[in-house]
Amino acid sequence: MEALQNEWKALYGDTLPSLAVSKSPVQNSWPVHVDHCFGRIILDNVIGKDTPWMSKLKSPAVKNMTSAQLEKCIALGNAIAEGRENLAELDAKSLQLRGKKQKPAANSKRKRETVDQAAAKETEASPPKKRQLDIKSALSPSEPNQDLPPSHSAASSPPPRKLSSGPSPIDPDLYNLITTSSLTSFRQRVLLALCQIPRGHFTTYVALSTHLHSSARAVGNALRNNPFAPRVPCHRVVAADKGLGGFGGEWGKDGKHAGEKVRLLKGEGVIVDVGKGRVEGSIWKGFV
Description:
By secondary structure, the protein is mainly α. It has helices at 2-21, 35-48, 61-64, 67-81, 87-97, 115-121, 135-139, 172-179, 185-194, 205-212, 216-224, 258-267; strands at 203-204, 237-238, 246-247, 250-251, 271-273, 278-280. Helix 2 (35-48) crosses helix 4.
């Protein structure tokens, strides 16, 4: 239940407002930009349906929703973030329930595919590839990632004395590995952006998705199976509240591979409160 509550709060409180502020193309228009408005729209459409949600659920909603209600709200929020639901139409319905008016949304019929749908189709022909391993394999002592030469392992590289705050240059060999892989165009873009995060710094799924004009959920899914870990440093991406986020396909400080993520971050100079499962410091957003 707590995990669902945290996911819901991050979605309407951070992910959706960030997409709105950056004018992400996943929506034709963003009629609202602040967290409580996104909460209103989703809750009215999921909980209220034919009346404002407060008439059916005690406030604060996050503490009084059932698991099923949280899952439905999260599903609708993700659909908005990925362009599968029209935000303007949902907002108009919410306002109508409250006796307020909104100008009819123009171009309600979408003329473009969502970011993720387009990305899924943009696979390019390429020569035979080496076997690609996901992040779990990269972290497993019994099955080391054979695609990565020993010289690039996190354990063999001590933290540098001086940390750069600018975007890291991408190693040409790694760039070639990513761009000639069988990954979709979108996943390649995610991994290339990830390579910019300098050692000793961290960013969030929201910051990365804002740079890519996508959604935090889509970015998280792209990072779930990182065939080039740890050279492509998915361990440098954390949750919006600076919690550890996902790693190795599991979420939070109690995840199976959370200890490895902490080790990698601390080894690079990031301050981690292990007890709280949170990193400390400023979120890096220097993507170019």
